[in-house]
Amino acid sequence: MNFTALDLWGRRAALERTGLVFQSNFLLALARANDFEGLEEASMTEAQRFQARHSFTTLIHPDGMGETFRVFIQHKGISAPSLTGLQPL
Asked: Which residue, of 21, 38, 81, 87, is most buried by count of CB atoms within 10 Å of its CB?
């Protein structure tokens, strides 16, 4: 994906760049901020818990989707937004 082009097109529409991070950083920052609460529920079986952990690992693994995909966020009309997913790990 050409994020430079997206950034330029956004600027033409009065959008400002909020941030660009790897998917792994974005998801880990969100999960950490919530103490990883949303990954498992008390009603889940052990097999469901394993599947949830495995799915999350697939999304954040550096050799998989975690460093293949990026999250690009732009904003408009908000001064200096601070998003949890863009926070450093």
From this structure: 21
pLDDT at position 35, please?
A: 80
Token pair in block for residue 43:
């009603």
Structural domain spans, the chain = 3-76
Alpha helical stretches, state H, the chain: 3-12, 23-33, 46-60
What's CA 61's distance to the chain center, in Å?
13
Q: Is the dihedral of CA 34, 35, 39, 44 positive or negative?
A: negative
Greatest Cα pair distance, the chain, in angstroms, is: 50
Structure pTM?
Answer: 0.83
Tell me whether residue 21 is exposed, middle or buried, using C-beta atoms within 10 angstroms of its C-beta: 0 to 12, 13 to 18, 19 or more: buried
